Amino acid sequence: MTAARRLSLVTDGIHTQRPKEKTGSLRVAIATQDMKSLNAHFGSAKHFAVYDVTSDGWNFVEAVAFENISDESGKHRTESDDRITLKVEALKGCHLLFCLAIGGPSAAKVVSAKIHPIKVPNVQSIEGVLSRIQNMLKSAPPPWLRKVLTEAAAIKKTPFDDED
Fold this sequence. Notes:
CATH architecture: 2-Layer Sandwich
Strand content: 15-25%
CATH topology: Nucleotidyltransferase, domain 5
Distance between the termini: 48 Å
Helix content: 25-40%
Radius of gyration: 16 Å
């Protein structure tokens, strides 16, 4: 099985693992073929653009690339090759996943990894998606986003947070 390739920005000169999520942000993955638009189904996405989004803006975290992908129907190139699990593993730590479509079994794997999948009906720019998330965080977030924010805060909480 081919591993995912990661492209991350390094700001401190040392980079040994995935960048840590910024406090108060949502980590968002966007399925893309060209790193410009949300324009891919989950299984057929060549890339996932990963950003941290806050009410103040967003920061690029990394791009995750896959060489061997499923076709648009969700079929793998070889039936014994499980590319969906590889993608879910690569996206662990994300809170939201935006894609054009995602099949039931794939969605179940994504949800079990504590990632909230969001199907978008039309191709749109990555900047447009990020702007919408930022605006939702500035105003009153919808119930599904409040739930994601609550779960994200609970995951980030350490045992020492209760001690004062």
